[in-house]
Amino acid sequence: MSISHTDIGDNLRKIVILGRLDIPGTESVAGELEKLAAAPKKGVVVDLSSLKFLASIGIRALFKSANVVKERGGTMVLVVGNNSSVVMSLEATGVSELIPVFKSNAEAERAAVA
C-alpha cells in the first residue's frame, strides 16, 4: 500500500493510491488520505487507476475525505482509468453518484477546480 501526492499550482492536489484498499490497506493510508485531502486546495483528485482492490472500508475512507474537502468548500473527484473492478465497486455502492468519477486525469483535474 502506498499513498503519495503532488500539488499542481495553488488550487489542486493530486493524491495517488496504489495497492489494495482492503482492511489492512485502508488502515495504513486512511489517516494520510484525510490529512492530504484537508489541505487548503480548491480541488482534490484521488487517482485510483492503479488500485488492485476496493473494499467497503476503503469506500468509507474516500467518503470521509470527500466530506473534509466539501466542508471547506472544495471538490474531490476520483480517477479510475480503465480499472473495471474499482468502477464496479463504486457503481454498486452508489459512490459514483456522490463523488464524481472520471476515466482520465485531465478530465478529473478540470472538474476539481471548476
Describe this entry's structure for a reader.
This protein has 5 helices and 6 strands. The protein is of the alpha/beta class and 114 residues long. The protein has a single domain (2-113), classed as Transcription Regulator spoIIAA. Strands 1, 2, 3, 4, 5 and 6 form a 6-stranded mixed beta sheet that branches. A hairpin with a 3-residue loop joins strand 1 (2-8) and strand 2 (12-21). Helix 1 packs parallel to helix 2 (56-71). The model has no long low-confidence stretch (mean pLDDT 93).
Summarize the structure.
With 114 residues, this protein is of the alpha/beta class.
**How many H/I helical runs?**
5
Give the uncertain stretches in residue-range form: none
Topology as a string of helices (H) and strands (E)? EEHEEHEHHEH
Mean pLDDT: 93
Strand content: 25-35%
The percentage helix is: 40-55%
CATH architecture: 2-Layer Sandwich
What shape does the CA trace take? Answer: globular
Q: Can you tell me the CATH topology? A: Transcription Regulator spoIIAA
What is the CA-based Rg, rounded? 12 Å
DSSP strand count: 6
